[in-house]
Amino acid sequence: MVSKCGKSSYILSTKPSILCEGAVVGRTEGEGPLKEYFDKIYYDSASSQESWEKSESLFQQQAFLEALEKGKLKPKDIEVMFSGDLLNQCISSSFGLLEFSVPYLGQYGACSTMAQTLLLSGLFVDSGIVSLAAAVTASHFCSAERQFRFPLEYGGQRTPTAQRTVTGGGCAIVGESTPGKPCISAVHIGSMVDLGIKDANNMGAAMAPAAAQTISSFLTDTETKPSDYDLILTGDLGEVGSKLLYELMLKDGIDISSRHKDCGLLIFDREVQDVHAGGSGCGCAASVLCAYILPKIASGELKNVIFAATGALMSPTSSQQGESIPGISHLVNLSFG
Amino acid sequence: MVSKCGKSSYILSTKPSILCEGAVVGRTEGEGPLKEYFDKIYYDSASSQESWEKSESLFQQQAFLEALEKGKLKPKDIEVMFSGDLLNQCISSSFGLLEFSVPYLGQYGACSTMAQTLLLSGLFVDSGIVSLAAAVTASHFCSAERQFRFPLEYGGQRTPTAQRTVTGGGCAIVGESTPGKPCISAVHIGSMVDLGIKDANNMGAAMAPAAAQTISSFLTDTETKPSDYDLILTGDLGEVGSKLLYELMLKDGIDISSRHKDCGLLIFDREVQDVHAGGSGCGCAASVLCAYILPKIASGELKNVIFAATGALMSPTSSQQGESIPGISHLVNLSFG
After folding, report:
1. Which residue of A has its CA nearest to B97?
2. Which helix (H) or strand (E) holds B3?
3. Measuring CA to CA, which residue among A173, A148, A163, A116 is closest to residue A263?
4. A231 φ, ψ to 5°?
């Protein structure tokens, strides 16, 4: 039974559990600091597919299959699937997940997709609409570069504020409360925020205001403070966006710096790997959450976690037409079962 | 309280009502047979905006504002907004609805978006998650042609099976059961279907199998038959897709021809207007449902209606890579309050 709390936070009283999860990544991610945590690493940039888009679809599919396998589940057990991605018309979700014939609600939250799909899965299970829901997403460095920036063959220089789209996917399957599994205690549905950032090579700055608004609102709604959480995890603000997030929240008198980590900074070693301001993309938050964070909650190493992924709701067309970049951030509060 | 019924249908026991709705369209739609029903008609193809994309955003915004006005509501009364569109990264939704600062969950269901957003609004209200939810979508002939087919200036010939993307938007605001308002009795979450159609100029054929599967499953799940409904309304199958739908359903022994109408055939007069196989796009089902059908349910002229919108989950990239076109259809059962 969901109960609303404050402006846009919701307490999930049955505490639905994340029963199982899958995370698969590409080579650069598989050479980073989290390499031992992923279920599968593909070392070929197209993961033996004919195109990067098909490779991205494969990451959606494999993340879902890994999660099913761990949970000893079959596709037909899943009553509803929420999925989305960054590709035009979300084709990596549709083509990757088509064959499973699972009731499907396509989502568009850009890089906030893992939080958005997990939030919806939690609400559906807590309300008793379904017993099992899947949250799936993926992204791919090569398909994103081609679509949002330049063809890789062009060899364009990337700015220091640019982030590297993670090649990877993640899936979390949500079901009824189960001891020993990470549970979803609360969620917050974000609103769009636009502070006028227009630089498509600085997504962290465009998305930080949305993260600040969502985290602040959630703390206010639930009457909690940063020290009530072991970890406040953002999706892919990277180096630039994370610093801006601290600054913006400090203006509201909230200091999250000692609790905060960002998936885009966890997944790569910026000293060694050429990833500029850190990782980004739907697959960044998805693969880090599923591979690295959820097991730590399951083991009790982390007891109370805020997961706030952010998305930039722009397109190359809107940028070419001179529009700024609206951001959004959805939040899932995860707790030790 | 939502209760599951059969494989993927859900009965909404509190029967949430559609409290108010808005529908705005462009010139061609405003010259068609439904012209007297729309709230607003823009006669300039860009509706005084700088680009077609911004014009499409305006349709989202105006549909929402018309609905709010009829319901004597303010944006801050809406607890969650579900919206999506056909543009890359769903920018007509994000830029059109940004200013309202409403908690926002972006959807991608292609031309099934009106059914998908309405279905989610109904489930959220029936479960008690929120009291007021908005379902919004729009499409634009010129932005869709440029993005999916050819620049209009190229003057390409369209095939007889091609449909004309509707320039228009619709919004329905869902709240608690209210006598005299159309209510959502049940919904069905569709699964993707792909029978191998690859012709991007024949979307009706690509989407008909999904409509057939969804309508058949819903009838089976709810143990009802076509004659139990006054109207079985599809979103935008057009002339070609509607005929295919009858054929596919007849194979299952179900004849819907006497009950069926398609929004894509209602919105234009194909004898007089140069629209080939009929209307299409998110705005087609949205504007016809909101302007023409919902008032007929409110008045009791229609008592029990199946609204099954369909979407083609492809992109120009997937078509260029030789992929077929997966379809999906979501269903909302609307009843006289």
Report:
1. A192
2. strand B2-5
3. A163
4. -155, 135
Residues of A in contact with B321 (CB under 8 A): 50-51, 53-54
What is the distance of C-alpha B301 from the center of its chain? 21
SS3 of B105, please? strand
Does the distance separating the beta carbons of B94 and A89 come in below 8 Å?
no
Q: Write the DSSP assignment of A293-335 as a string of letters.
A: IHHHHHTTSS-EEEEEEEEE---HHHHHTT----EEEEEEEEE
**From CA B217, how far away is CA B8, in angstroms rounded?**
8
Q: Which residue, B161, B256, B245, is CA-closest to B211?
A: B245
CA atoms of B216 and B255, how far apart (whole Å): 11
pTM: 0.98
pLDDT tens digits, residue range A189-229?
999 999 999 988 888 899 999 999 999 999 999 999 999 99
Q: Which residues touch A220 (CB under 8 Å, ≥6 apart)?
A: A6, A7
Indicate the fold that domain B183-335 takes in CATH: Peroxisomal Thiolase; Chain A, domain 1 (3.40.47)
Q: ipTM value, please give it.
A: 0.98
Q: Which residues contact A113 (CB under 8 A, 6 or more apart)?
A: A83, A84, A85, A107, A137, A282, A286, A309, A311
* Partner A contacted by B199 (CB < 8 A): no
Sequence ranges of the domains in chain A? 2-175, 183-335
pLDDT, one tens digit per residue, over A95-136 is 999 999 999 999 999 999 999 999 999 999 999 999 999 999
Backbone angles phi, psi at B201, to 5 degrees: -100, 15
Contacts of B269 (CB under 8 A, 6+ apart): B32, B33
Sign, CA torsion A314/A319/A322/A327 = positive
- Alpha helices by DSSP H, listed for A104-237, are 113-126, 141-148, 203-222
Q: Is A195 on the interface with B (CB under 8 A)?
A: no
CATH class of segment(s) B2-175: alpha beta
Q: Name the minimum distance, in Å, from the CA of B4 to any CA of chain A.
A: 7
